[in-house]
Amino acid sequence: MAPTAHLRVLATTDLHMQLTGYDYVTDRPTARPGLAGIASLIDAARAEAAAQHRACILLDNGDLLEGSPLAGQLAQMPVAATHPAIACINQLRYDAVGLGNHDLDFGLPYLDAVIGHLKMPVLASNLHNANLPAIKKTALIDCALPTSSEGPTTLRIGLVSVMPTLTAIWNKHRLGGKTRITNAADCLRKAIPALRDQGAELVVVLAHMGIAAPDHSSGESALELAKVPGVDALIAGHTHQRFPGYGHKSVAGVAPQTGTLMQVPTIMPGHGGSDLGVLDLTLRQGSSGKWSVIGHVSSLRQNTAQTPRHPNVLAAVAPAHAIVRKHLTQPVGRITTELNNYFALAAPSGIGALCAQAAELTVRAAMRECPSDLPLLVAATAHTTGGRDGPDNYLTIPKGEVQRRHLAGLNPHNNQIWVIEVTGAALRRRAEHAAGVFDLLSKGTPPANLLKTEVPGFNFEALYGLTYQIDPTKPEGSRIEGLRHEGRLVGADDRFLLATDQFRAAGGAGFERTANHDIYLRLPCTSESAVVEALHKPAQPRPVPWTFAPCGGVTALLPTAPQAADHLDAIAHLSPRTLGLDASGFLRVALTL
User: Fold this and answer.
1) Rounded to whole angstroms, what are the CA distances from 173 to 113, 115, 163, 524, 561?
2) How far apart are CA 589 and CA 587, in angstroms?
3) Angle at CA of residue 472, ends 552 and 215, nearest 5°
4) What's the pLDDT tens digit per position in 521-543?
5) How remote is the C-alpha of 141 from its chain's centroid?
6) Which sequence spans correspond to the domains of the chain?
7) CATH code assigned to 339-549
8) What is the pLDDT of residues 145-192, one digit of tens each?
9) Which class is 4-323 in CATH?
10) What's the CA gap between 457 and 29, in Å, rounded?
11) HSE (CB half, 13 Å, CA atoms) of 100?
12) Using CA of residue 256, residue 257, residue 260, residue 266, what is the dihedral sign?
């Protein structure tokens, strides 16, 4: 009888420095306990594996080091073994860590210092930079493997880790000109045979990318990587989705219920510590001695409010946690009216207007050194608007004293302000893409959801300096009406300057990538720092950039924060009606368009 064995692969991804489950913007714990809860799930999953005679490895799929005020504070401090992320990853005995695009956001010296204190291989197979010798291209792990018939043996597991090639553009200001990121699928085609030659009997791919590829990224998805010969298992990430599970488009090769891509066992464990990925593989050893996967179970273990917070993680994070909380209480200005973004996906918000004014003031100051006759527009992104982070994921800046914590959610990924030159045609395409967050509504049907569940809210933006209408009853690509600048219809060949962020300018969130010759300014400041300056300037009244087009009384349902019930006057023109809370805790508001 051929020997069989069982291997459990545990995985995390896109933790974004959610180590203890704390919202530094509201200064209170979140419903999910972050890595502190994941650590308890890891302990339980390892104990189960031991009891079931399964071998077990633990992997992380990137975007660990950035994404919260704690991350930003730590990046300004000397790196030591007591760095909370380092201490936690070492204590939890991860077998390997793959890098994601956001792990590069604080620059190469910081990343190199962190890697120097980690006790496991750190991988980035398609990242090429001679100044990062500590990063491994691949890794081999020798795993003691209990078998069903011949006793323990050793399984040699090969690991490959890839990130999107666009990372080189998104992080160009951090990486310098000597960094290359090669196509992920091409990388695997070379790396996997090399690992096999070195004795790898099973290959697990850490793919810091989503299930399906963006239209412009051939070979840049977990689905495309699953087609590469020799891949035995996949860990996906980057898009903050969950797999297996519902919510994935019907695409050939994707099996959301069983958790496979092209029949390759796959997991994608959410983000922010929402889930622990558990991939149980059944292996059989053939007569030639080679192991193959003959069965699998892909599952996600949710990290909930009831999950115990691991005391070791809490202790490791406590000193830095206290420092960042104290820093965020610093006052930075005052406002006379509360601002919030509860309805930012139904009407322009006060927070969006503040960010637009801040960016414009910053850009105009910089343009004194390089003036232009082109009109300046500003794209205000709808960050922190519910979605997968739940009904607490909204921003409020209270009337009176403004503290640093109130602004910490304006730019969660520390994107810099860039100014790009665009045509009227490009502006229309941009507005159409942003309008893709809305579901297709129909007249004469029961109320439907205003927003697509699979599209994150931050894909939306308001274009300040223009006025236009959005009609969600029309197909995508034809929803923008009356696009005007100072009352005049925008022509396809008209030219403007647009203040945006480097992530979008480089093609992030599905926006068009800006050619180098169309990048007018790269400013080192972020939205948050610009807003601090703007708080000391008089507010500048500006036209409302967009509204919904009249849709004949179509009713649409908007999920928002429960606190929004006290602010319905902000969208009185949409005749809002509250319909109670949904199963996820969002307040449902019926809008008439």
Assistant:
1) 19, 21, 18, 9, 36
2) 6
3) 165
4) 988 877 788 888 888 887 777 78
5) 29
6) 4-323, 339-549
7) 3.90.780.10
8) 886 666 568 899 999 999 999 888 888 777 876 788 999 999 999 999
9) alpha beta
10) 23
11) 26
12) positive
